[in-house]
Amino acid sequence: MTAEATDVQVLKLRRADLRRCAELEQELFPGDDPWSQRAFISELDQGHHYIGAYLAERLIGYAGLAINGRPPHVEAEVHTIAVEPAHQGRGVGELLLRGLLTRADEKGAAVFLEVRTDNEPATGLYRKYGFEVVGLRKRYYQPSGADAHTMRRPAQEQS
Asked: Between the N and C ends of the chain, which has fewer C-beta atoms within 10 Å?
C-alpha cells in the first residue's frame, strides 16, 4: 500500500518506532553512516522535536528539528527528514517539513539544514518553502564524501 499525503497522520514520534527509524536509515543512507536506534534515543532524550508520518499506525517517515538559543536569537536546525522509498514523491516529506517549520515558526527561529548537492527533489522542496543556499560543505557526508549545501530559511513573521 502506498500513501498519499491525505492518508498520512503526522504525530509526535513514538519511542516504540525508533527501531523502525534505524531500519529506514539503513535502507535510505547505506553509504553515509546511517543513524542507529541509540542515536534516535539520544535525540529524543535531548528534547529535540521529532515527528513521524504514520499510515494506518505504521511509521513510513520521520523528521527532526533542534531549536537553539533564546529570543531574539533563536535558530533551528533540521536534523533529518526521511521517507520510506515506496512513499516518496507523494507529499509525505512535505508534510514532515511543514510540521518542522510550524515548530520553528512558533519559536520565531530561522531554520538551517544540509542537503546533498545531488538531491534535487529535496532541494526543490526546500526552495518551495523559502530556503536559499548559503554555503557548501565539501565532503560533508561520510564515508561517501558527498558534498552538501547549507540552506537557510529566515525567521517568519508571526501574525
From this structure: C
Q: Measured between alpha carbons, how far is 148 from 119 in angstroms, rounded to an integer?
A: 9
pLDDT per position as a tens digit, 42-56: 999 999 999 999 999
Element (H, E) at 58: strand 58-70
CA–CA–CA angle 19, 22, 26 (5° rounding):
140
For the chain, report the end-to-end CA distance as a whole number of angstroms: 40
Question: What is the maximal distance between C-alpha atoms in the chain?
Answer: 45
**Whose grid coordinates read 516518496?**
88
Query: Distance (Å, rounded) from C-alpha 115 to C-alpha 103?
Result: 20
**Are 75 and 23 a contacting pair, CB within 8 Å?**
no
Return the C-alpha cell found at 54. Answer: 504514520
The span from the CA of 10 to the CA of 152, in Å, is 23
pTM here?
0.91
DSSP state of 125: H
Q: pLDDT tens-digit profile of 1-17?
A: 455 667 899 999 999 99
Give the per-residue SS3 of 116-158: ECCCHHHHHHHHHCCCEEEEEEEEEECCCCEEEEEEEECCCCC
Kindly list the domain boundaries of the chain, sorted by start residue: 5-153
